[in-house]
C-alpha cells in the first residue's frame, strides 16, 4: 500500500487538484497489484498497551514538538480475524455502491450516528457521525471531547471505485443469434483480463413502488450470467506472436444468452410491455434483476450497473500469505481507514484526551479523475468541515475559525502501490522498488502528482516509527 499524498490541508489546492485527495491510507502491508495479492505482514495480536508518541505539529512552517503524550494501541482480534473481516468487506463490495453500504452498516453497528446533508446537524464533542453522498461516497468522523474552536482535522482519504466495464444506457443487442450486452469501460483497466471469466452485474436500480413513490435499491446477481469469450486459437494463431489486442468496441461485449427469450407466457409479455426499459435492455436481463430484487419487472425504471467478477476474494499462496482479490485498489485502503476510525474510538475514554477531529473520506470516481459531485474534486469534505466547525461553535464562529482549523489539519491520501514484479524487475528503478514485507510505501513526485513533501513525509515516518511500522519510498 502506498501513501501518495500527505499535506497540511488548504482547501484551494484540493478542490482544484483532485489528485491530492485521491485516496491513500497507511497500512502495514504492501500490495502487488500485478499479483492480485496482499502480504499479511505487520498484523499482530498485540493487547492494548500504552506507548509514547511525540506530539508534532506545524506552526508558521516550523515543526514543533511538545512533551510526550501517552497513547494506546489495540488489537482485540487475532490477525486472521482481521483478515477474515477484510475478505468479508471485499466480497460484499462488488461496486462503489455496495462498498459504501457496507461501510455504512459497520459504522451504524459501531454506534456512529448517520447525518443527512439536507438536514440541520447537531454535532457534539465526543460524538461519532457520518453521511453519504450518491450512495457511493462517505464521510465519517469522531469529535474529540476536548475539542476547541479552531482545532484541526486528521483525515485519511481513500476511494470506493475500481476499473470495470459498466452497462451502457441501451444494452440490448444481438449478434449471430446471440443476446449480447453493450458495455463501456470505466477507468484504466487491463481489459484483456476480463475475457473468459464468470461475470455478473451489480449496482443501483430505481424502482417505482405500488403507491407511486420512487426508491433506490442495490442489486447484486451473485450467479454468473455473462461471459466475454475469446476467439479459439485455431481461428487466430497470430495472437501467439502479436499478442492479444482486442477491439474494445466489438470484442469486449458480454454474452447473455444463446437464443432469444421465450415469450410464451402472456403474463411475462404483459409485464415486459409495461416496463419503461423494454427497448433499452433485454427482457431476460430485466427479469433476472426483478427476480433478484423480488419486485415486478415493470417497477424497474432505471439501472446503473457494473460488470463484476463472481470469483470470491480469498486467501492464497502456499502459506496463505496473499489475498487474491479484485478491487483491492482501493477497497483495501477504504477498509483500513474505516477500521482505524472505528477501532480508535470504540472504547470509553478513547476520545477523552482528543482535541482534534478524526475523519475518514471515501470518495467515488477516482479512477476517472475525481471530477464529480461524489469525487474528491468536489467540495464535499470542506463543506462538511465548515458545517462541523459551525456546529461545534454553536453558530458563533470567530474570526477565521474555519480557516485556522484547516491550517491545523493533516490529510493522508492512501491507495495501493505496485510491488516489484519478479518477471518484470526492469519496470522499477533500482533504488525505488516497492518490496513486499518491507513497509508502507510513501510516494514522491517532483511534478506534484502526489502531495508528499519533506515535512509531511517526515511526520508520517515518525508516526510509523512510533508504531513499529517500516516505511519505504517510491
Structure description:
With 474 residues, the chain is of the alpha/beta class. It is 23% helix and 28% strand. The protein contains 10 helices and 21 strands. The protein has helices at 11-16, 79-92, 96-109, 239-242, 266-274, 283-293, 328-344, 380-392, 401-407, 454-466; strands at 2-8, 31-32, 37-38, 49-59, 62-73, 113-114, 128-133, 137-143, 153-159, 164-175, 178-186, 199-208, 214-220, 255-257, 300-309, 314-316, 322-324, 357-363, 410-415, 440-442, 471-473. The strands form 6 sheets. A 9-stranded mixed β-sheet has the order 6-7-8-18-9-19-1-20-21, sandwiched between helices. β12 and β13 (214-220) form a beta hairpin. The radius of gyration is 24 Å and the shape is globular. The model is unreliable at 11-75 (pLDDT under 50).
What's this entry about, in short?
With about 475 residues, the chain is of the alpha/beta class. The protein is built from ten helices and 21 strands. Helix content is about 25%, strand content about 30%.
List keywords for this structure.
9-stranded mixed β-sheet, alpha/beta, 474 residues, globular, 3-stranded antiparallel β-sheet
